[in-house]
Amino acid sequence: MKKIWFAVVALFVVIILAGCQESDDLSFKIEVVDLDGTLLLSDDIIFIEDDEQSIVELIDEAVGLDYSSSAYGTFVNGIADFYPTEYQVTYNYYYALYIDDIMSMTGIDDVVIKDGMKVSFVETTMLDETDLFVDHLIQSWLESYTETYINSDVFEYHVLAAIKQLNIYGYESPLLSSATMSFSPLDLARDTIANTFKTSIFEKALGLNLDTTKTALSSFESGSTWDACSLLTALRITQSSQTQIDSVLADLVATASQTSYLDADYAGMVLLALAPYKDDPSATVVINFMIDYIQTTLTSDGVEAYGNPNASSTAAVVLGLVAQGINPRGEDYTTEGTDLIEALIKYELFSSFKWLLTDEQADMNFSTPQVFSALVAYKIYRDVWGNPAFDLFNF
Q1: Strand, helix or coil at 298?
Q2: N or C: which end of the chain has fewer CB within 10 A?
Q3: How far from each other are the two terminal CA atoms of the chain, in whole angstroms?
Q4: CA–centroid distance for 119 within its chain
Q5: Cα angle vertex 27, ends 23, 29, to 5°?
Q6: Using one digit for the tens of pLDDT, what is the confidence trace for 339-387?
Q7: E strand map for the chain
Q8: Cα(105)–Cα(97) distance, rounded to whole angstroms?
Q9: Per-position DSSP letters for 197-252, written without gaps between them
Q10: What is the DSSP letter of 66?
Q11: Which residues, including other chains, have CB under 8 Å from residue 72's CB and lie 6 or more apart?
Q12: Can you tell me the distance from the alpha carbon of 203 to that of 198, in angstroms, rounded to the nearest whole number?
């Protein structure tokens, strides 16, 4: 009888102790939420009351925390295997700290741990709806159309240059190298200025030898402003004779604003070609002339040329403006509340682009690759601190 009574007492003590232990086991929930509001991680973290471990140590121990410390406190880079969009490339996206669904007004070091609370790391951005859509369009375009414009049979030079620049600046994009493309450099044309210009972009982007192209360029003389722009850029890409560069530059600034025909594509092209020479007083005169002309072509549907606002002309102007360090979303390029980037994305159709807003089909030959390159140029211009001028063809 005594043994039975002792066993009952022992069992009662165990239950009491277990109850005490459970009462000491406190917990809080941790969450990671992406930009779209999708819950990526949800976990309960156990802690002991009055324990000396910090909240940073508790989270790190439970799920893994990538953080850095500074005089301003702890900065959270990533949680578990989750990081903000464009991590280590831009600061456009970051994790904001929420406590019980309310944004914390203090850093994580100052959060007081409480039983049952919820700690959320919510991906956040300061970009507006238009800039977010630009980023989405670029990524969607890369996934859908890269192989259409760069393959073993053909390359589109706007697309090639844009992807190369994305590579250079560290964005997530297809890698370019001569090993990944079976397109033979021997098949590249050097019979005209336009073709040699495109060949120079291909060879420069893929790190190929430029000597043959440089030799071909040395025999050309520009017979028009269009040719002068292409020749000047190709000479710069191939680091050709400075004497020839100076000669072509002189011809271009002497004739560019004297033409009897002027349109927005022409103006954008000249701004892009003269971007490296904007400190030259004679080039500055032409640049200002083209900028003034572009102002006369602006509409709420983009840049007008050939009788209508269209995607290709708007893209050409955007490329020229950012090459001059001018923001196409600025007040001077906003018409009836719509800036040039907002106008440009009006032409989007399943991540490709129409030429005219009234078109029912995308223009895959011109507008789609040109708009893609313009959006990439704008994005890089936008993302780099201080917004320095960005030249699509300057590798």
Answers
A1: strand
A2: N
A3: 92
A4: 30
A5: 155
A6: 999 999 999 999 999 999 999 999 999 999 999 999 999 999 999 999 9
A7: 25-33, 39-48, 65-70, 73-79, 93-99, 102-103, 118-125, 298-299, 302-305, 308-309, 334-335, 338-339, 348-349, 352-353
A8: 9
A9: HHHHHHHHHTT---HHHHHHHTT----SHHHHHHHHHHHHHTT--HHHHHHHHHHH
A10: E
A11: 107
A12: 9
Region of 386 please: left (phi>0), alpha (psi -120 to 50) or beta.
Answer: left
Tokens read off for 53: 């471990």
Contact 210/200 with Cβ under 8 angstroms? yes
- pLDDT tens string 239-280: 999 999 999 999 999 988 777 678 999 999 999 999 999 999
Contact criterion met (CB below 8 Å) for 27 and 46: yes
Q: What is the token pair recorded at 384?
A: 């780099």
Q: Please provide the average confidence, as pLDDT, over all residues in the chain.
A: 91
pTM: 0.89
Residue 218 has pLDDT above 60, yes or no: yes
**φ, ψ of residue 249 in degrees (nearest 5):** -60, -45
Residue position matching structure tokens 């840049």: 303
